[in-house]
Every structure is written in C-alpha cells, then in structure tokens.
Amino acid sequence: MSIETRQVSLKIGILLHQRYKINSILGRGGFSITYTAIDKSLGRTVAIKEYFPQNLTVREGVNVYINSAESKESFEAGLKSFLEEARNLAYFRHPNICSILDYFQENNTAYLVMPYLEGDTLDSILNKCPQKTISSDSILKWLPSLLDALQTLHSKGLLHRDIKPSNIYITYDGKPILIDFGAARNAFERTHGYTIILTPEYAPPEQNSSDIASQGPWTDIYAVGAVLWKCLLGNPPPSSQERIVQIASSNIDPLDKLKKQLYNIAPQFLADGIINCLILDYKKRIHGIRELKEILNLNKENDNKNDPKIISNKTNTSTEDFEIIQQSNITEEHKYTEKKNISKETSTKNSNNSKLLYLLSFLLIAIPSFLLIDHLNIFPNSPEKIVNRENQICSALIDNYNVAIHLYNSKYYSSSYHKFIDVINSSCKRHDRFKGAASNILGIMNKFGMGVEKNSFDSIVFFKEASKYNNDAAQLNLAKMYLEGDDVERNVDQGLYYLKISAYNNNTDAILLLATIYETGAFGENKNLREAFSLYSHAVNNLKSNNNKIIQGYNRLKKYF
Asked: Of the CATH numbers 3.30.200.20, 3.40.50.620, 3.65.10.10, 3.40.50.720, which one belongs to the domain with range 15-115?
C-alpha cells in the first residue's frame, strides 16, 4: 500500500536522471523516501531511494532544499555518507546484500538505484504470523546466508548499523537480503548538535554513545541477536538502555528473567548464540561473525568463497585476489573504426595524459571467448533436481546470447541488439557473466551507432550495467571515457576508480594503463614504482601476458625490486 506523502515525495511520473520514471511510493523513513520506478533504458522495474532527511529539508517541485542554515552541516554530512554508502556497495557481489545498480545526484539531493525485490520484509512476515513468531527451523534456513553477508561487509571494514526486521528482506524463494544501510544515520551522529533516533530494542549501548570508535562488527552482532529473539518470542528484547537502568537500580538484568522462555522454544545452540549476542559490554560480546558461526555450528571450510572483490583506495596486487578471465577482441573492422577515432582525437590533443591514455587503443572488448560454449555443458556439476522453469529460463538466456553473438558477428546489428536486450532482461540468476557480456556489447553498439542510433548516454548506461556484473572490459571502457572526457564529462577520479576495478579483475590492458599511470604519475596520481612493478609482475608471472609493453615495463623496473 502506498504511503501518502504528497507534500514531501516526488510526483508519480517524474523522470529522474533522464532514465527512471517514478511509478509508486514504497515507503518513507526519517532519512529517505523509497520509490518504484521504470528503468526506460532496460525496461525493468527498479527501486530508488532518495536522500530526504525530513527534519532538515523541504521540497519545492522536484527540488530539495535545506530548511534552515543550522541544518546545513547535518544535511551535508548525511549526503556525503549516503553517496559513500553507494560507492562502497556498488561493487559488492553478494547474493544477500542489496546491490546498487546506479547512483547519482540531482534536484539538490542524491539517489540510489537498486533492484526491485519480490518478497517482503521480515517484519511484515512476522506480523502476518498468528503468534508473530517463526520457528527455529525456519530461521536456520536463512540465517547462514544473512551471516555470510555480514561477514563479507565486516571483512571490508563496513558496518550495517541498523539491522532490524524491517531491514531484512526475504524474497519469495526464501533468500534473505540486507537492505537500508545506516551510513547517513551514522553521519548525523557525528554532526554537532544532532541527536540520532535509533530503534532502541535493536541498538547496543555503544550506539547511544558519542564514542564512534567503540562500534564494530559486535555492534551489528547485538542487533542480529535482538532480531532472532524477536523472531522466536514475538517481541524484541528489552532495550539496552532499559537493561542498563534496571541493572543500575536493582542489579537485575531484565533479560535474565526472560531467558527461560528462549531456551524452552529454541535449541540450546541457537539460544546460546542469541544470549552471547546480547551481552551489553561490547568488550565481552561476540566480536566477529566467525565466532558466532562457531557457536551456532555454521562455520564451513571456505567461509569467504563468495566474498566480492572490493577495490580499496590502496592498490592490492595479491595474486590470491585475482580470478583469470580471458576475453577476445571484437572484429577487425571495429578496431579500425576505433583507430580512426583515436587518430582524430590524438591529433587535436597535446597533453601528456591524452598521449598516455591512447598508448592503448580504445579497447571495446565484446565477446568473452569463454562464453561461446554449448549451454548443455555449462554446469556439468549442477544438482540433478533443478526446478524445470528456472532451467528453461536459464537455457533460453544462453540460447539468446549465442544467437545474438552469431547475428553480431554476421553484422546483423539491429537483430542482435534486441537479442542482447533479451539476455540482460532474463530473470535467470545463474548466468550473470552472460548479462555482463551482453550489456558491454550493447554499450559498444550505442557508442558507435551499430544497429541503433548513436547514443552516448545509453552507452554509459549499458557499460555501467555490465560493470555491475563485474565485466572487466566494460570497466575499462568506462575508465577511458571518464579519463579522457569521451562522450561524458571528464572525471579523473571516476576514471581511475573503474580502471583499478578492471585491473584487479585481470584485464591486462587495464593493468598496463594503471601501471603506466603509477610509473609516470599521470592524471595527478602519485608516482609509485612499487605498485607499478607489482602490476607488471602480476601480469607477466601470473597471467602469463605476452604484451610487449607489459614485459618491457617489468624488465624496466625489476632492477629496483
């Protein structure tokens, strides 16, 4: 049911970012409004969260304005963290963390674009249950996945800070997804004179303290314990502040009076885990998800096998973080088209940065060779019993991809374009790499007007869509476009960001360009010969690159290391 927000929400039908048409209002919180929207480029429904701290802002038309000079610091701190959250989460590839498809600033505020999920929040599910509880068996079906998601977040130095039933989404197939991270709320905590409103039953004592340094993975772990308590007993535990007050006045923790109920309804290992989560003193509480998994007997040999590759500000060239992905170039005709374009641009630019950028041709890699395989052999180790419908959908995706590639290589660009669209719109969840490859090709086709009217905006849209699926070729394409200002406003920070991601995904052309930047100090990057040598060395020794420029760079620097 839509919430009536006529005075503060965007009107239905408003177009954001020249792409997203507001369709309905999903909900409103203290810091944001969430909408459904139609993505006009890809023809799908998405969810859009708008940064709108209601106590600090007013809306006039589509624009958001700060309501007073005193609110400016708090608003800007929250906006900065809202965007930082987007950047941090945009490249997470974890099935239980709500992914960020896009983010942008507009109307004096900011927006996050996320997949539209089919399901319901845990809070809503509990409210629909007769006793407002769910069984231990039901909890244990989704709890391991939820803990995996938190473990991934914590391993990257991130906290959720607002775990509660309304921020855990359960899809119709039973998959838990963490939503609505508390980055903006946390920023308000650090702003002078602004009091944050927490959900008290799920917040540990350290979240009510001004000492932000006292918060850590244990902060989220307390909230997990409170959520599990609520699921089993129908009500959340007494708030941490209530417990502290009663302990101070009577030396009795009100939680102790309720433990028996918990142990009567839950297996001991689960009840033990919950009680350990809810310890008030964070120094004595469970400090990490791995420890909680041990109590719950959920640890596996390879906890981090699904951890995403997140690019930090510091270059990391550990070979353990690399996954080799080989790709083939597009047709010679298109290489020639790119070379003509490059030649024209380089003749008009004399800066060292432009010369460096075009040391490499504008590599628009289209068809990963490992994808040109018979779909019958893609998953030889798949379980024998797979839902027929899902199997058919995924088979159709691969069939469409192979047909699209055939049409593309045969230069039937218009026909292939529609087939590639079918690939990326497929609901199959097993073949994201095909969707990434298809999106990258669609970006190329829009950039050069192949089978469709040339459209620079849509080329960026499709390259970003491909990057979402960790397509290193698309990431390199975005990097070069942003670094050079090619069909997009020049943004060196954004360009270097995509370049590092592509390099860390083992794109050797990205490795060469990034290493050269480190070696020369181009684009304002500090010279760092050690990082440059590490990249060259990884490409030569681990990727077995035979690129002459990479080999020359390796030989040039190895004498220093």
From this structure: 3.30.200.20
Cβ 57 vs Cβ 66: under 8 Å = yes
Positive or negative, the CA dihedral 432, 434, 436, 442 is negative
Radius of gyration of the chain measured on its C-alpha atoms: 26
Per the structure block, which two tokens stand in for 532?
């440059």
Q: What is the mean pLDDT of the chain?
A: 80
Please state which CATH class domain 319-560 belongs to: mainly alpha
pTM of the model: 0.56
CA pair distance 286, 191, nearest whole angstrom: 29
The CATH classification of domain 119-296, taken from the options 3.90.1280.20, 1.10.510.10, 3.10.25.10, 2.60.40.10? 1.10.510.10
For the stretch 371-394, pLDDT in tens is: 443 333 333 334 344 456 677 888
Helix then strand count (H, E) for the chain reads 20, 11
Which residues sit opposite 46 in a β-bridge?
Answer: 37, 115
- CA 535 to chain centroid, in Å, comes to 25
Dihedral (Cα; 188, 95, 421, 404), 10-degree rounding:
140
Q: What three-state secondary structure class fits 231?
A: helix
Alpha helices by DSSP H, listed for 287-380, are 289-296, 332-347, 352-357
List pLDDT tens digits, range 323-351. 222 233 333 333 322 333 333 333 343 44
**Of 395, 445, 392, 391, residue with least CA distance to 418:** 445
